[in-house]
Amino acid sequence: MTQKVAIDLGNRFVKLSDQGRVWSVESIYADVQGSTDKAVEYVKGSCEELVGKAWIVGHGARNYRRGIRTWTTEKHESALRLVLGSLELPRRAKTADFELVMSLPNPGVEGIQLQKALVGEHHIIDGGETVKVIIESVKVEPEGIGAYRYGYKQGLTKLNSITGIIDLGGGTAIATLFDAQGSQIEGARVVLRRGGIYGLASDIAVDPRLSSQVRSTPKVELIMDAIAEGSYAYGVQGVSFASFFDEYCELWLKGILSEALNRWGYLARRNWGDLSRGWGGSASS
């Protein structure tokens, strides 16, 4: 039986959904030598360059010096490693078939690259068991369309109005306008200079209320972790930035919205009274 899985290859997390189940894995992988229960080993298949290689995906990859954060690579370059390490495979199954639905900022060229990287047969060892993973197809949608469809079902869009979706990712923020029929408006998709959660965390990192209490320059990555966890506590030192997080978050969101409206220009202004806005992405987790 073929499983249909929706996957968002984010800069911070790989988010997956399968018939109502949702799970996520950190977007980091590390090649490993020798066998380990947590590693995926590529035995043979459509991707010849991975044959004989093994790797760990997710939080455990942080323990390896050569752990690779995926924002340092093109998405299609790390996609197969991340997908094979994140999919939940049926127990004791010899074969697992999948149809994937994914999203990208540029589904044209990038989508073709992603499909070439993923579609095919991949014989792997996962958890000590050999499995043939067959990725039958990869449908690539433009980023933001999922948030629009979700908002529509939840009654968050207005009848006969333009809807603005701002996808707040880990590394980028992408703003898109959709017309009343749910089609993306040509020329109304922009990547915002403020960036995603990384931009917010970078601002917090230089605040003296945090930097003066830690032993070295605050690491943006650890601040992003604390935001995702909702602890607002920096690393193992436990220095809290909760008291001024809302201050920075409000300024950050206002800055993003202001830039989005400015970049949308006349498209937003001509129908400002009827413009619905939706937020989504890493910032909501």
Describe this protein's structure.
It is a single chain. With 285 residues, the protein is of the alpha+beta class. The chain has 2 domains: 2-142, 2-Layer Sandwich (Nucleotidyltransferase, domain 5); 157-285, ATPase, nucleotide binding domain (Nucleotidyltransferase, domain 5, 2-Layer Sandwich). It is built from 8 helices and 16 strands. It has helices spanning 75-86, 109-118, 145-153, 197-205, 208-211, 220-229, 242-264, 266-269, and strands spanning 2-9, 13-18, 21-26, 28-32, 40-45, 54-57, 68-69, 95-104, 120-126, 129-142, 163-168, 173-178, 184-192, 233-234, 239-240, 276-281. The protein has a 10-stranded mixed β-sheet with strand order 3-2-1-8-10-9-5-6-4-7. A 4-stranded mixed β-sheet has the order 13-12-11-16, sandwiched between helices. Strands 14-15 form a two-stranded antiparallel sheet. The longest helix has 23 residues, at 242-264. It is globular. The model has no long low-confidence stretch (mean pLDDT 86).
Provide a concise account of the structure shown.
The chain is an alpha+beta fold and 285 residues long. It has helices spanning 75-86, 109-118, 145-153, 197-205, 208-211, 220-229, 242-264, 266-269; strands spanning 2-9, 13-18, 21-26, 28-32, 40-45, 54-57, 68-69, 95-104, 120-126, 129-142, 163-168, 173-178, 184-192, 233-234, 239-240, 276-281.
